[in-house]
Task: inverse folding
């Protein structure tokens, strides 16, 4: 660690906490950092997944490299149960950090789980409607009375309901069936459902002749895109602020490396070794600069999307109350990283209306 980096971490620790000698002695040396990922990925040893800067950090072994000299293990856990399963692990204090979407994190916050959102990692992510190849469904309005699969409790669920609601379509107007992504795709292929809300897997089905893509959030309205983040538990942050800073700084370095358009081919090649072929990722990113999709910023746009998501979740009776959002976002680590790496202003910041902030 260079002297300037060490000084920055020391200053951060002092600014975050005033820990006396007695209190400092109660914190055990850090031996392992536990990171949960809200996807089962594919394969094993290693598990493969793509689409975000957290996925890139995992593939590149960036966190492992950062902490190797300290003998600190990075333990990744992938959850086939997605965000809700991550929440269960957080409640059971089995994780220190987690990558997941807006809705499950909001549900956890509403239930009193103490976390902080410390970086964006997969913003403005696509949402697609896949239908049977010979289906007459051409737009969202055609879903009335149809059997539609969506993975409830995930950020796909909330984005899908928002898109339907914008067209005056309520859940009672169709049969919304709760299926995880893999089960939903199987159900579509077997004609057990008429349509599924999906991620890039919709393109994979289409390319195999098993589905057609009838609608996309990116082509419709930014409000229907999905947001994901990296969070840390309050408990871990209180005990190990320097480690949190190193995680965020490392993630920002990864985001910077792959936000360079010159690395676009390398980016999709890496993700192409994950769940889906690289051509699927290329299509998902058409017309979208890497600096937008791979931005780590916690800007006004992201905050506004989480506020809307919190209201929507409550309206759907997924939470008993609307949790407070503003103080959930902790920008201190990100601000230190951006300043230290001289990347302030590198990623575009957006306002609540989805337009560039001025």
Result:
């Amino acid at each position: 660690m260079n002297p300037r980096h060490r000084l920055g971490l020391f200053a951060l620790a002092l600014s975050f906490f005033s820990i006396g000698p007695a209190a400092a002695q109660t914190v055990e040396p850090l031996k392992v950092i536990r990171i949960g990922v809200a996807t089962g990925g594919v394969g094993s040893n290693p598990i493969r997944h793509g689409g975000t800067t957290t996925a890139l950090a995992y593939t590149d072994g960036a966190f492992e490299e950062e902490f190797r000299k300290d003998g600190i293990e990075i333990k990744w856990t992938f959850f086939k149960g997605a965000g809700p399963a991550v929440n269960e692990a957080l409640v059971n204090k089995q994780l220190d950090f987690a990558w997941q979407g807006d809705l499950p994190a909001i549900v956890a916050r509403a239930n009193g789980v103490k976390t902080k959102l410390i970086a964006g990692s997969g913003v403005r992510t696509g949402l697609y409607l896949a239908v049977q190849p010979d289906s007459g469904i051409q737009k969202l309005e055609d879903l009335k009375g149809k059997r539609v699969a969506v993975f409830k409790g995930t950020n796909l669920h909330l984005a899908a309901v928002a898109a339907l609601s914008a067209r005056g379509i309520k859940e009672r107007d169709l049969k919304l069936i709760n299926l995880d992504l893999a089960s939903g795709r199987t159900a579509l292929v077997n004609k057990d459902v008429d349509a599924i809300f999906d991620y890039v897997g919709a393109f994979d089905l289409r390319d195999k002749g098993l589905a057609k893509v009838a609608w996309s959030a990116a082509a419709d309205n930014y409000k229907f895109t999905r947001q994901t983040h990296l969070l840390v538990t309050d408990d871990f942050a209180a005990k190990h602020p320097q480690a949190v800073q190193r995680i965020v700084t490392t993630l920002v370095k990864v985001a910077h490396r792959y936000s360079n358009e010159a690395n676009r081919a390398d980016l999709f090649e890496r993700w192409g070794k994950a769940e889906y072929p690289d051509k699927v990722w290329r299509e998902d990113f058409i017309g979208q600069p890497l600096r937008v999709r791979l931005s780590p910023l916690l800007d006004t746009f992201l905050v506004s999307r989480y506020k809307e998501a919190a209201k929507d979740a409550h309206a759907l009776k997924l939470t008993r109350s609307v949790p407070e959002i503003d103080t959930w976002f902790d920008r201190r680590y990100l601000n230190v990283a951006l300043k230290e790496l001289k990347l302030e202003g590198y990623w575009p910041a957006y306002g609540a209306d989805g337009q560039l902030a001025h």
